[in-house]
Write a structure and sequence with these properties.
CATH class of the largest domain: Alpha Beta
Shape: globular
Helix content: 10-25%
Function: Responsible for synthesis of pseudouridine from uracil.
Order of helices and strands: EHHEEEEEHEHEEEEEEHHEEH
Radius of gyration: 21 Å
Protein name: Pseudouridine synthase
Organism: Murinocardiopsis flavida
InterPro entries: PsdUridine_synth_cat_dom_sf, PsdUridine_synth_RluA-like_CS, PsdUridine_synth_RluC/D, PsdUridine_synth_RsuA/RluA, RluA_PseudoU_synthase, S4_RNA-bd, S4_RNA-bd_sf
Oligomer: single chain
Number of strands: 15
CATH architecture of the largest domain: 2-Layer Sandwich
Structural class: alpha+beta
Enzyme class: isomerase
Length: about 300
């Protein structure tokens, strides 16, 4: 079912192209926004407009949005390399391999943590949408490391609140290009969808508050190994904030990394690993902490830098 939206153009989009404004407002790609405009599904002050027309703050937009793609129903699907680190009656902690998303989505045809656990016979809480049962936080497909999922209704409620209230200790290690200055610091910069509407996220005025703490563990000739502590958990947060510092994660071509460095180190994705996860157990009310070693591709890259 189509979604009809009517709203004024925010002053912050004054002077933007119509296709860019539509993409920004509704989280679409520029191409998809242009298709809606060409189909006559976008009116500005009651009249059709061209995709390159400039918008003005306060102009009245009427947009007919297509229905979102429905997320596929999770089905048991074994996931090679998905390791269970801890399991009890309420929670399950896994070490996620590369190339695996947290849960099925409309645009993803590869494996997911959720389907891998279903294939292992794990029963997760049914709280939340069917395709996201038990999911209380996520890792990018090509980010490896620790994830916790809820098996009971109580655990789901308590863990969702803990992530929202920032009481979960999330630690990552990342290899970035160059040497951050200072060697230890905090990036406090809001994040929202990139204005290009191409799937990237960016530091954007008026975006969602996002805070990343970093500390240099080891410095190499052309790269640094950092420990990251996240206060918030925005999509691509570490990748966006490191790119904003002009020290993108090695191998993260989406955010401007130098492909020659990644190629020399044999890294075919962003060097980013969720290395530790600590929180209060949702029903036993005791602190628990879990750790994960680097997978082979990331470990080899660091070993090579040390040899160099």
């Amino acid at each position: 079912m189509s979604d009809h939206r009517s709203l004024p153009v925010p002053d912050g989009l004054e002077g933007d192209r119509l296709d860019a404004a539509i993409a920004r407002l509704f989280g679409l790609s520029r191409t998809r926004a242009a298709e809606l405009i060409a189909a006559g599904d976008v009116l500005v002050d009651g009249d059709p407009a061209g995709k390159s027309d400039r918008v003005h703050g306060g102009a009245w937009l009427e947009v007919v949005l297509p229905p979102p793609p429905s997320a596929p129903t999770p089905r048991p699907e074994p996931v090679p390399g998905l390791r269970i680190v801890h399991e009890d009656a309420d929670i399950i902690v896994v070490d996620k391999p590369v190339g695996v998303v947290a849960h099925p989505t409309g645009g993803w045809t590869g494996p997911s943590v959720l389907e891998g656990l279903l294939a292992s016979g794990v029963q997760l809480t049914t709280s939340g949408a069917a395709e996201r049962q038990g999911i209380v936080h996520r890792l990018d497909a090509n980010t490896t490391g620790l994830m916790v999922l809820a098996k009971s209704e109580t655990a789901y409620t308590v863990l969702k609140r803990a992530f929202k209230e920032r009481t979960v200790d999330k630690r990552y290690h990342t290899l970035v290009q160059g040497h951050p200055d200072p060697l230890r610091g905090t990036v406090d910069a809001p994040i929202d969808r990139h204005p290009a509407g191409d799937g990237r996220w960016a530091v954007v005025a008026g975006g969602r508050p996002s805070v990343t703490h970093y500390d240099t563990l080891e410095a190499f000739r052309a790269a640094s190994l950092l420990e990251i502590r996240l206060e918030t958990g925005r999509t691509h947060q570490i990748r966006v904030h490191m790119a904003a510092l002009r020290h993108p994660c090695v191998g993260d071509h989406l955010y401007g990394a130098d492909p020659t460095i990644a190629e020399r180190l044999g890294v075919s994705r962003q060097w980013l690993h969720a290395v530790r996860l600590g929180f209060e157990h949702p029903t036993e009310h005791r602190p628990v902490e879990f750790a994960s070693d680097y997978p082979d591709d990331l470990a080899k890259a660091v070993d090579q830098l040390r040899e160099d």
